[in-house]
Protein backbone atom coordinates (compact mmCIF):
# COMPACT_ATOMS: atom_id res chain seq x y z
CA UNK A 1 0.00 0.00 0.00
CA UNK A 2 1.22 3.47 -0.90
CA UNK A 3 0.44 6.22 1.58
CA UNK A 4 0.98 9.84 0.57
CA UNK A 5 0.46 12.26 3.45
CA UNK A 6 0.30 16.07 3.20
CA UNK A 7 2.78 16.03 0.34
CA UNK A 8 4.01 19.53 -0.48
CA UNK A 9 6.63 20.67 -2.98
CA UNK A 10 7.58 24.28 -3.57
CA UNK A 11 10.12 25.51 -6.11
CA UNK A 12 10.81 28.97 -4.74
CA UNK A 13 7.45 30.73 -5.02
CA UNK A 14 5.94 28.00 -7.23
CA UNK A 15 3.59 25.74 -5.29
CA UNK A 16 3.92 22.63 -7.43
CA UNK A 17 2.17 20.44 -4.81
CA UNK A 18 0.19 21.58 -1.79
CA UNK A 19 -0.89 19.24 1.03
CA UNK A 20 -1.76 16.27 -1.18
CA UNK A 21 -2.88 13.09 0.63
CA UNK A 22 -4.13 9.80 -0.79
CA UNK A 23 -3.66 6.06 -0.45
CA UNK A 24 -3.23 3.52 -3.24
CA UNK A 25 -4.24 -0.06 -2.50
CA UNK A 26 -2.16 -2.99 -3.68
CA UNK A 27 -2.66 -3.80 -7.35
CA UNK A 28 -4.75 -0.70 -8.06
CA UNK A 29 -4.40 0.93 -11.51
CA UNK A 30 -4.77 4.66 -10.94
CA UNK A 31 -4.57 7.53 -13.39
CA UNK A 32 -3.22 10.91 -12.31
CA UNK A 33 -5.01 13.58 -14.33
CA UNK A 34 -4.23 17.24 -14.72
CA UNK A 35 -3.31 19.87 -17.24
CA UNK A 36 0.25 20.80 -18.02
CA UNK A 37 1.75 22.48 -14.95
CA UNK A 38 -0.74 20.88 -12.52
CA UNK A 39 2.05 19.07 -10.65
CA UNK A 40 1.86 15.54 -12.10
CA UNK A 41 5.59 15.17 -12.84
CA UNK A 42 6.47 16.65 -9.48
CA UNK A 43 4.18 14.13 -7.79
CA UNK A 44 5.75 11.16 -9.59
CA UNK A 45 9.25 12.48 -8.93
CA UNK A 46 8.46 12.75 -5.22
CA UNK A 47 7.11 9.18 -5.25
CA UNK A 48 10.21 7.70 -6.86
CA UNK A 49 12.66 9.76 -4.84
CA UNK A 50 14.00 11.84 -7.75
CA UNK A 51 12.81 14.94 -5.86
CA UNK A 52 12.57 15.43 -2.12
CA UNK A 53 9.33 16.99 -0.93
CA UNK A 54 9.27 20.32 0.90
CA UNK A 55 6.94 18.75 3.46
CA UNK A 56 4.85 15.63 3.94
CA UNK A 57 5.71 11.98 3.53
CA UNK A 58 5.49 9.01 1.21
CA UNK A 59 5.41 5.45 2.56
CA UNK A 60 5.32 2.17 0.67
CA UNK A 61 4.13 -0.79 2.74
CA UNK A 62 4.79 1.20 5.89
CA UNK A 63 8.39 2.13 5.04
CA UNK A 64 9.31 5.71 4.17
CA UNK A 65 10.56 6.03 0.62
CA UNK A 66 14.00 7.39 -0.04
CA UNK A 67 15.98 7.63 -3.26
CA UNK A 68 17.90 4.41 -2.63
CA UNK A 69 14.76 2.28 -2.84
CA UNK A 70 14.67 -0.07 -5.80
CA UNK A 71 11.08 -1.24 -5.45
CA UNK A 72 9.73 1.72 -7.44
CA UNK A 73 10.01 1.56 -11.23
CA UNK A 74 9.34 4.41 -13.62
CA UNK A 75 8.29 4.62 -17.28
CA UNK A 76 9.18 7.98 -18.78
CA UNK A 77 7.57 10.05 -21.53
CA UNK A 78 10.87 9.94 -23.36
CA UNK A 79 11.61 6.28 -22.89
CA UNK A 80 15.29 6.66 -21.86
CA UNK A 81 16.30 3.43 -23.61
CA UNK A 82 19.72 2.63 -25.07
CA UNK A 83 18.79 2.96 -28.73
CA UNK A 84 21.68 0.99 -30.17
CA UNK A 85 20.84 -2.09 -28.11
CA UNK A 86 18.14 -4.67 -28.65
CA UNK A 87 14.74 -4.70 -26.97
CA UNK A 88 15.93 -7.72 -24.96
CA UNK A 89 19.11 -6.02 -23.69
CA UNK A 90 17.16 -2.92 -22.76
CA UNK A 91 14.59 -4.99 -20.87
CA UNK A 92 17.41 -6.82 -19.10
CA UNK A 93 18.86 -3.54 -17.79
CA UNK A 94 15.80 -3.38 -15.51
CA UNK A 95 17.44 -6.10 -13.43
CA UNK A 96 20.35 -3.72 -12.72
CA UNK A 97 17.99 -1.48 -10.76
CA UNK A 98 19.36 1.99 -10.43
CA UNK A 99 22.95 1.06 -11.01
CA UNK A 100 24.59 2.82 -13.93
CA UNK A 101 24.23 0.88 -17.13
CA UNK A 102 27.35 -1.18 -17.82
CA UNK A 103 27.89 -3.82 -20.48
CA UNK A 104 30.26 -5.68 -18.14
CA UNK A 105 27.61 -5.85 -15.42
CA UNK A 106 25.08 -7.16 -17.95
CA UNK A 107 27.32 -10.13 -18.68
CA UNK A 108 26.97 -11.16 -15.04
CA UNK A 109 23.19 -11.22 -15.20
CA UNK A 110 21.89 -14.70 -14.41
CA UNK A 111 19.42 -17.03 -16.06
CA UNK A 112 16.58 -15.93 -13.81
CA UNK A 113 16.90 -12.32 -14.93
CA UNK A 114 17.12 -13.39 -18.56
CA UNK A 115 13.92 -15.40 -18.27
CA UNK A 116 12.24 -12.47 -16.52
CA UNK A 117 13.27 -10.16 -19.37
CA UNK A 118 11.78 -12.52 -21.96
CA UNK A 119 8.64 -12.93 -19.87
CA UNK A 120 8.27 -9.15 -19.64
CA UNK A 121 8.76 -8.74 -23.40
CA UNK A 122 6.06 -11.35 -23.93
CA UNK A 123 3.72 -9.46 -21.63
CA UNK A 124 4.08 -6.30 -23.74
CA UNK A 125 3.69 -8.29 -26.98
CA UNK A 126 7.28 -7.93 -28.19
CA UNK A 127 8.71 -11.44 -27.94
CA UNK A 128 9.17 -11.63 -31.72
CA UNK A 129 10.99 -8.27 -31.66
CA UNK A 130 13.33 -9.18 -28.78
CA UNK A 131 16.46 -9.01 -30.95
CA UNK A 132 15.46 -5.87 -32.79
CA UNK A 133 17.44 -2.71 -32.11
CA UNK A 134 15.36 -0.13 -30.26
CA UNK A 135 16.42 2.58 -32.75
CA UNK A 136 14.51 0.75 -35.51
CA UNK A 137 11.28 0.40 -33.53
CA UNK A 138 8.20 2.65 -33.58
CA UNK A 139 7.54 5.07 -30.73
CA UNK A 140 4.82 2.82 -29.34
CA UNK A 141 7.05 -0.27 -29.46
CA UNK A 142 9.85 1.66 -27.76
CA UNK A 143 7.51 2.67 -24.99
CA UNK A 144 6.50 -1.00 -24.56
CA UNK A 145 10.20 -1.89 -24.19
CA UNK A 146 10.33 0.77 -21.47
CA UNK A 147 7.42 -0.97 -19.73
CA UNK A 148 9.18 -4.35 -20.04
CA UNK A 149 12.32 -2.88 -18.50
CA UNK A 150 10.25 -1.52 -15.58
CA UNK A 151 8.63 -4.97 -15.08
CA UNK A 152 12.03 -6.68 -14.96
CA UNK A 153 12.80 -4.46 -11.98
CA UNK A 154 9.98 -6.39 -10.20
CA UNK A 155 8.73 -3.25 -8.49
CA UNK A 156 6.06 -2.94 -5.81
CA UNK A 157 5.08 0.41 -7.32
CA UNK A 158 5.08 1.27 -11.02
CA UNK A 159 4.98 4.93 -12.04
CA UNK A 160 4.49 6.17 -15.59
CA UNK A 161 4.92 9.86 -16.40
CA UNK A 162 2.84 10.76 -19.47
CA UNK A 163 3.87 7.49 -21.17
CA UNK A 164 1.72 8.12 -24.25
CA UNK A 165 2.00 11.90 -24.61
CA UNK A 166 4.18 11.76 -27.72
CA UNK A 167 2.22 8.99 -29.50
CA UNK A 168 -0.64 9.08 -32.00
CA UNK A 169 -4.03 8.04 -30.51
CA UNK A 170 -3.89 4.47 -31.87
CA UNK A 171 -0.40 3.76 -30.52
CA UNK A 172 -1.32 5.49 -27.26
CA UNK A 173 -4.21 3.07 -26.73
CA UNK A 174 -2.03 0.08 -27.55
CA UNK A 175 0.64 1.17 -25.07
CA UNK A 176 -1.98 1.82 -22.37
CA UNK A 177 -3.49 -1.61 -23.05
CA UNK A 178 -0.13 -3.32 -22.49
CA UNK A 179 0.64 -1.19 -19.45
CA UNK A 180 -2.65 -2.17 -17.85
CA UNK A 181 -2.29 -5.84 -18.82
CA UNK A 182 1.19 -5.90 -17.32
CA UNK A 183 0.10 -4.21 -14.09
CA UNK A 184 -2.72 -6.74 -13.71
CA UNK A 185 -0.62 -9.76 -14.65
CA UNK A 186 2.18 -8.88 -12.22
CA UNK A 187 -0.27 -7.39 -9.69
CA UNK A 188 1.69 -4.13 -9.39
CA UNK A 189 0.26 -0.97 -7.87
CA UNK A 190 0.42 1.52 -10.75
CA UNK A 191 0.09 5.28 -11.05
CA UNK A 192 0.04 6.73 -14.58
CA UNK A 193 -0.07 10.43 -15.33
CA UNK A 194 -2.07 11.45 -18.38
CA UNK A 195 -3.58 14.63 -19.69
CA UNK A 196 -6.01 12.90 -22.08
CA UNK A 197 -9.26 12.33 -20.14
CA UNK A 198 -10.72 10.01 -22.81
CA UNK A 199 -7.83 7.53 -22.65
CA UNK A 200 -7.77 7.80 -18.86
CA UNK A 201 -11.48 7.06 -18.58
CA UNK A 202 -11.12 3.92 -20.67
CA UNK A 203 -8.22 2.38 -18.75
CA UNK A 204 -8.29 3.75 -15.20
CA UNK A 205 -9.86 1.94 -12.24
CA UNK A 206 -9.46 5.06 -10.16
CA UNK A 207 -8.59 8.70 -10.86
CA UNK A 208 -6.73 11.40 -9.01
CA UNK A 209 -7.11 14.92 -10.36
CA UNK A 210 -4.52 17.62 -9.75
CA UNK A 211 -5.06 21.30 -10.39
CA UNK A 212 -2.48 23.96 -9.50
CA UNK A 213 -0.80 21.49 -7.15
CA UNK A 214 -3.94 20.57 -5.23
CA UNK A 215 -5.82 17.28 -5.28
CA UNK A 216 -9.27 18.22 -6.54
CA UNK A 217 -10.60 14.77 -7.46
CA UNK A 218 -10.31 11.22 -6.13
CA UNK A 219 -12.82 8.73 -7.40
CA UNK A 220 -13.87 5.93 -9.70
CA UNK A 221 -14.97 5.98 -13.35
CA UNK A 222 -18.61 6.63 -12.48
CA UNK A 223 -17.67 9.93 -10.84
CA UNK A 224 -15.40 11.07 -13.64
CA UNK A 225 -16.76 13.90 -15.77
CA UNK A 226 -14.98 15.52 -18.69
CA UNK A 227 -12.98 18.62 -17.91
CA UNK A 228 -11.16 17.52 -14.75
P1 LIG B 1 2.91 18.67 -14.86
O1 LIG B 1 3.73 17.44 -14.85
O2 LIG B 1 1.49 18.44 -14.40
O3 LIG B 1 2.96 19.38 -16.16
P2 LIG B 1 4.96 19.78 -13.18
O4 LIG B 1 5.04 18.96 -11.95
O5 LIG B 1 5.98 19.58 -14.24
O6 LIG B 1 3.49 19.68 -13.77
O7 LIG B 1 5.03 21.30 -12.78
C1 LIG B 1 4.23 21.86 -11.72
C2 LIG B 1 4.67 23.32 -11.52
O8 LIG B 1 5.97 23.32 -10.97
C3 LIG B 1 4.75 24.12 -12.81
O9 LIG B 1 4.40 25.45 -12.49
C4 LIG B 1 6.21 24.02 -13.19
O10 LIG B 1 6.63 25.12 -13.95
C5 LIG B 1 6.87 24.02 -11.82
N1 LIG B 1 8.14 23.26 -11.81
C6 LIG B 1 8.31 21.95 -12.11
N2 LIG B 1 9.59 21.58 -11.96
C7 LIG B 1 10.25 22.69 -11.56
C8 LIG B 1 11.61 22.97 -11.26
N3 LIG B 1 12.55 22.01 -11.32
N4 LIG B 1 11.92 24.22 -10.89
C9 LIG B 1 10.98 25.18 -10.82
N5 LIG B 1 9.68 25.00 -11.09
C10 LIG B 1 9.31 23.77 -11.46
P1 LIG C 1 6.16 18.17 -17.96
O1 LIG C 1 5.00 19.09 -18.03
O2 LIG C 1 6.07 17.02 -18.89
O3 LIG C 1 6.51 17.81 -16.55
P2 LIG C 1 7.94 20.38 -18.06
O4 LIG C 1 8.33 21.07 -19.31
O5 LIG C 1 7.00 21.02 -17.10
O6 LIG C 1 7.41 18.96 -18.51
O7 LIG C 1 9.26 20.01 -17.23
C1 LIG C 1 10.37 19.40 -17.81
C2 LIG C 1 11.53 19.51 -16.81
O8 LIG C 1 11.81 20.86 -16.51
C3 LIG C 1 11.26 18.84 -15.48
O9 LIG C 1 12.44 18.23 -15.03
C4 LIG C 1 10.86 19.96 -14.56
O10 LIG C 1 11.20 19.66 -13.21
C5 LIG C 1 11.65 21.11 -15.10
N1 LIG C 1 10.92 22.38 -14.97
C6 LIG C 1 9.63 22.60 -15.28
N2 LIG C 1 9.27 23.87 -15.03
C7 LIG C 1 10.40 24.46 -14.56
C8 LIG C 1 10.69 25.78 -14.13
N3 LIG C 1 9.76 26.74 -14.09
N4 LIG C 1 11.95 26.04 -13.75
C9 LIG C 1 12.87 25.09 -13.76
N5 LIG C 1 12.65 23.83 -14.15
C10 LIG C 1 11.43 23.52 -14.55
TrEMBL record:
Every ABC transporter domain range: 2-228
InterPro entries for this protein: AAA+_ATPase, ABC_transporter-like_ATP-bd, ABC_transporter-like_CS, ABC_transpr_PhnC, MetN_ABC_transporter-like, P-loop_NTPase
SUPFAM superfamilies for this protein: P-loop containing nucleoside triphosphate hydrolases
UniProt keyword Nucleotide-binding, yes or no: yes
Keyword NAD among record annotations: no
PROSITE patterns assigned: ABC_TRANSPORTER_1, ABC_TRANSPORTER_2
CDD domains documented for this protein: ABC_PhnC_transporter (cd03256)
Domain of life from the UniProt record: Archaea
GO molecular function terms attached to this record: ABC-type phosphonate transporter activity; ATP binding; ATP hydrolysis activity
A cellular-component GO term for this protein: membrane
Alphabetical UniProt keywords: ATP-binding, Cell membrane, Membrane, Nucleotide-binding, Translocase, Transport
Pfam families for this protein: ABC_tran
PANTHER family: AMINO ACID IMPORT ATP-BINDING PROTEIN, PHOSPHONATES IMPORT ATP-BINDING PROTEIN PHNC
Protein's recorded name: Phosphonate transport system ATP-binding protein
Species per Swiss-Prot/TrEMBL record: Halopenitus persicus
